[in-house]
Amino acid sequence: MLRQLALAAISLNRIADKIAATNALDLAAAIDTTAILQASAPIPGREARPQLVAPADLPARATHSPEGRAALIHALTHIELNAVDLALDIVWRFPGMPESFYRDWLRIAQEEAYHFSLLNAHLNSLGYSYGDFVAHNGLWEMAEKTSDDLLARLALVPRTLEARGLDASPPLRRKLAQAGDQAAAAILDIILRDEIGHVATGNYWYRHLCAERGLDPVAGYAALAERYGAPRLRGPFNLDARRAAGFDEAELAALQAPR
Ligand SMILES: [Fe+2]
Ligand SMILES: [Fe+2]
């Protein structure tokens, strides 16, 4: 039932409903690992706002003004809502994995819901609501591109886009603390701690599938990044966090090598 419930949760339009349904998932309940599920509504369910725009059309965010700081928190809030959808999506969409795979991503969906709730509450405390600024759809676009191949999904979502969050965290935390927003800095600490675990889970299952398919993880990643048009990652990299998340030295070297 849990995979069906993940599909039901991701389909919900109202954010409050989606977060509540995600939090209500009982991680100890039975899992049908083989069912091939079909979405009956557009995935993911969304509210009318925020308006989604191309990444190039996002306004610059200057953290020294209160509005700029709110726009930054809004962008992070948007990422976490997408992360809820991404974790739920991997659960319902891809059959044939061990039970522990689904339980891992369901737990991650709940952690993402927690991150969303922390940031959303902080955004409200700044006098804004989620939806007040425009946002981009880059995370979900990568989910759609990789909806037919779990290996590609793991390579490009947790191991690329989520891992990029590990790199982005320290400079962002510094900026927010310098702007005097200690509450936001404390939220980023919680998120970074949890995200190391999410990327580690991505690495674990990516290697599991590579081993099953007889692929070299480093060469396989390069091929998938090329085929699916993964964004080129730029340093500085958070190498400590990446090591803690299970990237090995060969992967870190490939990351830092000029293309
Ligand atoms: Fe998160
Ligand atoms: Fe995450």
Overview of this protein structure:
The protein has 259 residues and is mostly helical. The protein is built from 10 helices and 2 strands, in the order H-H-E-H-H-E-H-H-H-H-H-H. A two-stranded parallel ribbon has the order 1-2. The N and C termini lie far apart (44 Å). The mean pLDDT is 95. Residues 80, 83, 112, 115, 191, 195 line the site of one fe (ii) ion (FE2).
Range of helix content: 55-70%
Q: Structurally, how many domains make up the residues?
A: 1
Rg to the nearest angstrom? Answer: 18 Å
Strand order of the largest sheet: 1-2
DSSP helical segment count:
10
- 3D shape: globular
Strand pairing plus helix content: what structural class?
mainly alpha
Secondary structure: number of strands: 2
The largest pleated sheet is described as: 2 strands, parallel
Compounds present?
A: fe (ii) ion
Poorly predicted regions are none
Secondary-structure element series:
HHEHHEHHHHHH
Kindly estimate the percentage of residues that lie in beta strands according to DSSP: under 5%
Distance between the termini: 44 Å
Chain-averaged pLDDT: 95
